[in-house]
Amino acid sequence: MPRPLFVLAAALLAAAVLPLGSASADLQSDIAGQVQEFLDIGKVAVPPADCGPGSRPETGIQGDVSAADRDSGRSTQGYTCNMSFVGGYQGRGAGITSTTFDHCSYTGSFFPGNLLGPAQGVQVIDASDPAHPALTATLTEPAMLAGTWESLKVNTARKLLVGTGVPFLEGTGYLSVYDISDCAHPRLLNPGPGSNLGMPLPITTHEGGFSPDGRTYWASGIAPGFVSAVDLTDPANPHVVWQGLTGIEAHGFGISPDGNRMYLSALGGFTALDISAVQRRDPDPQVDHIGRVFWTDGWATQHSVPVRYDGKPYLFTVDEGGAGGVKLVDISDENDPKVVNKIKLRINLPENQDSMVASSMGGSVFSYDPHYCAADRPDNPTALACGWESSGIRVFDVRDPFHVREMAYFNPPARTGQNLQLWNSPHALASLIGAPIMDGFSVARTILDGKFDPAQALSPRSGMVAGGDVSTDWCFAPPEWHGSQLWTTCNDNGFMVLQLDNDVYSPPADQQSIVGS
């Protein structure tokens, strides 16, 4: 829409979403502040990593895999900077997200490809020897066979693994709970409700995650914004204790350490919800909206990682589309969250959206956006690791969250030409579409701002609007901290153990990998 109308629409939206009960002496200033934040676009990238000996660095713009590298086959060698590959288990691909516990990893399933075998359902991988991870079991309950999408999560406090069935975008009814005390051999705890085809739970799901104490698993169905709280006090008897509509869309989330607040992702931004009544198990729990913040710099907000710096609460909030990167949000005033910093790679900047189109055309619907991140501890984190879709695993020094710098990355080898072997990879399936449509909004914005050079956007790949070539990998899963190693999966390369160089990262004594849900 024309820019004046866009600003007017933003003003009306900002007025509509001001927190209820937040009377102000200067409503006009409040609205102006909301509009400014709604329209603010990050225009600065974090300083790139200084790659040491043994690295095989990127050849161009930070985060980009150039059209020339894709077409020449250079991307099949991968790119490394201060981080190396230790061992892995590719299998037939890694679904959308994975999770880890102790010396094991649980690789998500993606329907219907995961039905083709040879390892159906969720793959259990023993990485006690990180150089030689081995498949020890497959989980084949209905939820696991239906595809776990972004629902497969672990609660370390109670040693529980939960996943829900999501055949495509949204699922209904099926949930499996496992005891992972013996992490290499999970034991199903609920043979009845949610894991029996005849006994589905009344939930919708696309994503899910735990409250920190492990007593509640939250299932979010993407559209409409339907969220369910599943009581796991008795893991053999999961049952819904609250559910409700929270908005037009409900994606991932982060939950506060005390379990009383949920930061629920929306289309672009998040809503803070008071879930304390569910945490207390009130007889008729009510969930109230507290504060919210929306933005246009990125969309399809994925999840939030709650952290504290010197006792002050913040979120690292991730946008999986629209070149929004990762935002640092001050939530000390929970009625009025504020974006106070942004973490972007150079390829995410407005002036490089034409270069993004040139290189990522033919690589399918996602280009160079983050998806899931993990901090190395909840209080005063020193490092943040993110799966950055086609840019690989990116690691940032966040000791000073207002002056973040990149310290390492590992972008795995592209599996070009192996599409038909990667039955459990959503990237291989989505390659039927060639255009990076998840960044359509950021491209449109740069065109309106006069910063998009059509000539720069052209490349030998420009005609690849269908039939993608899997010339990068998609790294969707959170890279979880295991000392100086990161354990994660990327769609095509499967499970990987990655080692950070000693001169760029020293694990804190109280390291505790945190994803937020």
Structural summary, described in words:
The structure is a single chain. Strands 1-28-27-26-25 form a five-stranded antiparallel beta sheet, with no helix packed on it. The model is unreliable at 1-25 (pLDDT under 50). Helix 1 (3-17) crosses helix 2 (27-39). It is globular and about 60 Å long. The protein has helices at residues 3-17, 27-39, 67-72, 142-145, 276-280, 353-360, 426-430, 440-448, 454-457, and strands at 79-81, 83-89, 98-101, 104-107, 122-126, 134-139, 153-155, 160-164, 171-172, 175-179, 187-188, 204-205, 207-210, 216-221, 226-231, 239-245, 253-255, 261-265, 269-274, 288-294, 299-309, 312-321, 326-330, 338-343, 372-375, 383-387, 393-397, 405-411, 480-482, 485-490, 494-500. It is an alpha+beta fold and 517 residues long.
Structural class by secondary-structure content? alpha+beta
Low-pLDDT segments? 1-25
Distance between the termini: 37 Å
Q: Which percent band covers the strand fraction?
A: 25-35%
Neighbour order of strands in the largest sheet:
1-28-27-26-25
Q: What is the number of helices?
A: 9
Counted beta strands: 31
Radius of gyration: 22 Å
> What can be said about the biggest beta sheet?
5 strands, antiparallel
Query: Share of helix among residues?
Result: 10-25%
What keyword list fits this structure?
517 residues, alpha+beta, disordered N terminus
SSE order and pairing:
Elements: H1 3-17, H2 27-39, H3 67-72, E1 79-81, E2 83-89, E3 98-101, E4 104-107, E5 122-126, E6 134-139, H4 142-145, E7 153-155, E8 160-164, E9 171-172, E10 175-179, E11 187-188, E12 204-205, E13 207-210, E14 216-221, E15 226-231, E16 239-245, E17 253-255, E18 261-265, E19 269-274, H5 276-280, E20 288-294, E21 299-309, E22 312-321, E23 326-330, E24 338-343, H6 353-360, E25 372-375, E26 383-387, E27 393-397, E28 405-411, H7 426-430, H8 440-448, H9 454-457, E29 480-482, E30 485-490, E31 494-500
Antiparallel strand pairs: 1-28, 2-31, 3-4, 4-5, 5-6, 7-8, 8-10, 9-12, 10-11, 13-14, 14-15, 15-16, 17-18, 18-19, 19-20, 21-22, 22-23, 23-24, 25-26, 26-27, 27-28, 29-30, 30-31
Helix pairs in contact: 1-2
